[in-house]
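Researcher: Go.
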Amino acid sequence: MLAVDALSQYEGFFAEFYDILHSSYDADLQMYLGLAREYGDPLLELGCGTGRLLIPLAAAGHEITGVDLSRDMLARCQEKLDIEGEAARRHVTLVQADIRRFELGRKFNLIMAACNTILHCTATPDLLAVFAKAREHLADDGVFVVDFCIPNVKAMIESSGEEEVFEVIHPVRGTRIVDTYKASFDFTRQIETIHTHLQEWDERSLIRSARSHTERGIYFPREVALALRYSGLTIAKTWKGYRRGPLVETSQDIVYICRSAL
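Model: Structure:
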């Protein structure tokens, strides 16, 4: 058995588990495919991970660059691109870099910070740095798209500190992966702290386990909007999630379509 404590949530076993857990999630894919058709190439995804969005966009013929800090996530993305074949692979550039500090030397028509990527910024200066980099790499007529979940404070308070257990079957090996998950919420600091314990079992014994401790930011729409404007971006459209409808009181997700303010 291989045991690793305090492993990054996006390395090793966790990168593999993330890929398994999110492989079938595509609620946002049609929106981003539509935006890619509307604004054209080249595209840039910040925090591209294992390529859940990047690979379908490349397979649709779009030239796309993916930036991610995790070497293991990018390695899994490359493996999947190799399986996808040359038709998709030739459209992709993968860059290992911090999305607060990258330099690509070119402009993009569509830049994406999808599926809660900005929540990995746990301090306001980090959020501003990401937005400033997006602004720096944005073409004159391009758009920067940010989507994230709107905090459900009542649900957070009720679930804070409670342990939850999920199980999935490994799609290749058929083993059982047990995810023991506990999140707590500090609204003074606006930080969500996540403790995760992963275990992989065969029919008889534990094969491997790993633990991680991760923090994510808790952001509300008005403060994200303010950070975007402070970073030289203007919000052209606001949608309630991925269906492009107007934001309402009960919306769970929000999408900002932003342009350069200058």
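Model: Residues 61 and 88 are 7 Å apart (CA to CA).
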